[in-house]
Design goal:
Number of helices: 14
Structural class: mainly alpha
Order of helices and strands: HHHHHHHHHHHHHH
Distance between the termini: 47 Å
Strand content: under 5%
Shape: globular
Radius of gyration: 24 Å
Mean pLDDT: 86
Number of strands: 0
Helix content: 55-70%
Length: 369
């Protein structure tokens, strides 16, 4: 088995290889001539990152097919992560209101870093058994139409706070089910009503710094010779650009795999998700599995699979927790962990901007405010 360091190195090399190919191979170079080169540069890096992720997803899916146990262990570690996320988010609310200090947290963007490294975050205590018991209670009591492992950005303060307000003011629910369940039990909704004192302070400094950087860029641009580039703007988020690009520039096999990936990721049709659930349920090694009752057979199948997933998570949780205790609070390659971390450089960048903004405001060049 490859070590985590080897995996990271391999992904970095693959990323560089894709970027190099797209900048040097004739089919790509000729294709991009019609577009603004600055946007092309951004697209190449974005596309390369996605391509690396697609291959990683393919490997993940292959492992998923080969070992059902890995799937349930990954689900358990997603649950452990959610337990920690709620604790850190509650702490974030208090920290932003300047009611507490947290280890390894200096600026708001530090929470983004720990969002991707939550199981060894030093700002919160390790998972305890009573928290797992409460999460299992959440699994048993939460309606089956709310998937326990839906993908959320669990430390995005502004978005989560807005979702909470929508929950109160509008008919539909966009608040994270686990957070909602936790808040209802412990009354922690009140934390979302606290003021964002720290965030507002940082915003002042960031605004000053960004404004100065923009002024310098504008000055530099005004000194350069104005050369108008009349080539098309590359709107790679619109008009199925990505599909068309892959079809024209990649192999037929890669295009087929890409379309298969899209189909797997976007199963929206009424019968597709139930059929996927049936394909999973039929592999369960038992003669009879009671179907959860619902108005439509499609819904009944989906709910039955969701209930089975929760039952398996509960079954495997003791094993997962023992594995967690063996490694916590160190960084390690736990089931389902991927080294995709957009939070590495961003906090550093924001620190620089805040300090620069403080200097522009005739304040000390530090984070003590």
């Amino acid at each position: 088995m490859k070590s985590q360091v080897e995996k990271i190195k391999q992904k970095e090399e693959f990323f560089k290889q894709i970027v190099h190919e797209m900048k040097t191979e004739e089919r790509f170079v000729d294709y991009f001539k019609q577009f603004d080169p600055q946007i092309v540069e951004v697209f190449i890096k974005s596309y390369a990152q996605q391509k690396v992720a697609w291959y990683e997803l393919a490997e993940h899916l292959n492992n998923w097919k080969n070992s059902k146990q890995d799937v349930w262990m990954e689900a358990c570690f997603e649950a452990l992560s959610q337990i920690q996320h709620k604790k850190l988010f509650n702490a974030q609310c208090l920290w932003r209101a300047e009611k507490t200090k947290l280890e390894a947290i200096e600026i708001c963007m530090d929470f983004l870093y720990w969002e991707h490294n939550i199981l060894w975050c030093p700002a919160i205590k390790p998972v305890e058994q009573h928290e797992i018991d409460f999460y299992i209670q959440f699994l048993k009591e939460t309606p089956l139409d709310k998937k326990f492992d839906e993908v959320y950005q669990l430390q995005e303060y502004d978005e989560i706070k807005q979702a909470f307000l929508n929950e109160i003011e509008e008919e539909y629910s966009s608040y994270i089910p686990w957070y909602e369940y936790y808040d209802r039990e412990f009354g922690t909704y009140e934390l979302l009503k606290l003021p964002d004192i720290r965030g507002e302070k940082e915003h002042v400094y960031i605004h000053l710094s960004f404004g100065e950087e923009q002024r310098i860029r504008d000055e530099e641009d005004s000194k350069k010779e104005k050369i108008q580039d009349n080539r098309k703007h590359l709107n790679y988020h619109e008009n199925n650009f990505e599909d068309n690009f892959i079809k024209e520039n990649e192999s037929k096999e890669f295009y087929r795999q890409h379309q298969a990936k899209k189909s797997w990721m976007h199963k929206k049709d009424e019968n597709e998700e139930p059929l996927m659930c049936i394909s999973e349920l039929k592999d369960i090694p038992q003669k009879y599995l009671p179907l959860v009752s619902a108005d439509k057979w499609q819904t009944a199948v989906i709910y039955t699979w969701e209930k089975h997933r929760r039952d398996m998570l509960i079954e495997f949780m003791p094993q997962a927790y023992q594995l967690y205790l063996k490694h916590a609070p160190k960084k390690w390659d736990y089931p389902g962990f991927t080294e995709f971390d957009p939070g590495v450089d961003l906090p550093k960048r924001y620190r620089e901007m805040i300090i620069k903004g403080r200097q522009m405001n005739n304040e000390a060049p530090d984070l003590n405010f």
